[in-house]
Specification:
CATH class: Mainly Beta
Distance between the termini: 76 Å
Number of helices: 3
Largest sheet: 7 strands, antiparallel
Number of domains: 1
Length: about 170
């Protein structure tokens, strides 16, 4: 009887480890569901919106200008942030705030991206902490799941004029 119970416990533990590894790989390499908080991506993503973030793009270096990404915060590595990619390595970006009279520009260094929130007046982004290493990107948001009336692919940036083609 003890042997039978021990056998069942070991099988249960084995299945738990197997399914745990499968779940870890799915969330690490395929993607997952993310609840966004904060006003920095309004109007595209509102506070408490639920989105799907896929992780394959970052592994295959397929992140493009205009994509919305989940990134480890450069200021607090324990938290993630949600921002739009404005520039990739080698791109010329506007580094000043929209309200600044004189505009300043810079080039994104190799291995980095320039990130900004869609709500430029209420976003802590690359204008504050500079270019972000590509390795901090966790995934690319591709679909809004909640609220249901907004279900679908994400809309284009309301700040498309900040993308420079130089």
């Amino acid at each position: 009887m003890l042997r039978d119970a021990l056998g069942r416990a070991c099988r249960f533990l084995g299945y738990t480890v197997q399914y745990g590894c499968i779940a870890h790989c799915a969330f690490e390499y395929l993607g997952g569901i993310v609840v966004c908080s904060g006003p920095s991506m309004e109007p595209t993503i509102q506070n408490s919106d639920i989105v799907f973030s896929e992780n394959l793009s970052r592994h295959f270096y397929c992140i493009r200008k205009g994509d919305i990404v989940i990134v480890k915060s450069p200021n607090d590595p324990k938290s993630n942030i949600c921002k739009r990619v404005i520039g990739l390595e080698g791109d010329k970006v506007c580094t000043s705030n929209p309200s600044d009279f004189l505009k300043s520009h810079s080039y994104v260094p190799k291995g980095h991206v320039w990130l900004e929130g869609d709500n430029l007046r209420n976003s802590t982004d690359s204008r504050c902490y500079g270019p972000v290493p590509y390795g901090l990107i966790r995934g690319r948001i591709c679909l809004k799941l909640w609220p249901l009336n907004d279900f679908g692919f994400l809309r284009a940036s309301p700040n498309g004029h900040r993308f420079l083609d130089d």
